[in-house]
């Protein structure tokens, strides 16, 4: 019951020895994630103790892959170094790079997502909470104790709303929850996750969380209409956003009627998606659809 991340995933943490990297590595380990190493060229050869687990530090991603067989990296480096960190990981052949860092310049995100795509590395983020397959693995900063394994797949632009929907549906549970990030340029889109959930035999329903700005949700609606046979329930944040004011994520740019919450809702509903007016109403839609399918 998973997309992109399973209990078999072997995870490196770039920036593990920093404050945020240390804190969230400890949380990932507590969630059962197989963290096999950190990366810091200045501290290569050392180990870091996390309760009952000693995690080695490697000088490069390539060294970490050679020593451990790692196939996932979680990036906690400062914005100025994020581009080089992702390029290094992609050049080393990592399969999945989860970029938690926020505040990365857009031109850097354009460069490293394009480079990763050429190298065959999937990027999730930047400026995202990561992804979690409950009961199996957690790569990022998503709280692991607010839900359980289950039949719902979740893809979201918003970290906070990811957590809220996980909590609202905690009695149902999730296959995988993916926070794709809300920046103008992201490595993995709603459509990428919809396609993966469509192919996952243990995902019965998909929850899509979007927000004002851009046209990602409209493009997702067109994809759903043509390619997704599983039920999809959505929530769009931003109906009460004041007109003409910059709000929230860097990607939340509205031009005229394009990118508004209403335009996104209309497109999704035209594709057969139920759209909740609040996170709680969205959760009720999910429960109703699942009950009707039993």
UniProtKB/TrEMBL annotation:
Substrate binds at residue 163. It catalyses: succinate + ATP + CoA = succinyl-CoA + ADP + phosphate; GTP + succinate + CoA = succinyl-CoA + GDP + phosphate. It is an enzyme of class 6 (ligase). Pfam families: CoA_binding, Ligase_CoA. CoA binds at residues 17-20, 43, 100-102. Transmembrane segments: none annotated. Succinyl-CoA synthetase functions in the citric acid cycle (TCA), coupling the hydrolysis of succinyl-CoA to the synthesis of either ATP or GTP and thus represents the only step of substrate-level phosphorylation in the TCA. The alpha subunit of the enzyme binds the substrates coenzyme A and phosphate, while succinate binding and nucleotide specificity is provided by the beta subunit. This is Succinate--CoA ligase [ADP-forming] subunit alpha. It comes from Streptomyces pratens. The gene is sucD.
């Amino acid at each position: 019951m998973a997309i992109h991340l399973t209990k078999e995933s072997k995870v490196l943490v770039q920036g593990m020895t920093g404050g945020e990297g240390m804190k969230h590595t400890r949380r990932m380990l507590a969630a059962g994630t197989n963290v096999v190493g950190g990366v810091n060229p200045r501290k290569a050869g050392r180990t870091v103790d996390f309760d009952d687990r000693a995690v080695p530090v490697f000088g490069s991603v390539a060294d970490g892959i050679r020593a451990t067989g790692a196939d996932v990296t979680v990036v906690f480096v400062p914005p100025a170094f994020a581009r080089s960190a992702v390029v290094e990981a992609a050049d080393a052949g990592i399969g999945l790079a989860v970029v938690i860092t926020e505040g990365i310049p857009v031109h850097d995100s354009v460069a490293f997502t394009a480079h990763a795509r050429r190298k065959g590395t999937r990027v999730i983020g930047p400026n995202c909470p990561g992804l979690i397959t409950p009961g199996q693995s957690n790569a990022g900063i998503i709280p692991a104790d607010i839900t359980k394994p289950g039949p719902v797949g979740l893809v979201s632009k918003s970290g906070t709303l990811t957590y809220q929907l996980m909590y609202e549906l905690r009695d149902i549970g999730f296959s995988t929850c993916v926070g794709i990030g809300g920046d103008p340029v992201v490595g993995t889109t709603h459509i990428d996750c919809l396609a993966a959930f469509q192919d996952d035999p243990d995902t019965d329903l998909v929850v899509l969380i979007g927000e004002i700005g851009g046209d990602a949700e409209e493009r997702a609606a067109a994809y759903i209409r043509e390619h997704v046979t599983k039920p999809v329930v959505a929530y769009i944040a931003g109906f009460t956003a004041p007109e003409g004011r910059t709000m929230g994520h860097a990607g939340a740019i509205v031009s005229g009627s394009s990118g508004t919450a209403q335009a996104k809702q209309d497109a999704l509903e035209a594709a057969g998606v139920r759209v909740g007016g609040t996170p709680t109403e969205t959760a009720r839609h999910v429960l109703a659809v699942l009950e009707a399918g039993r």
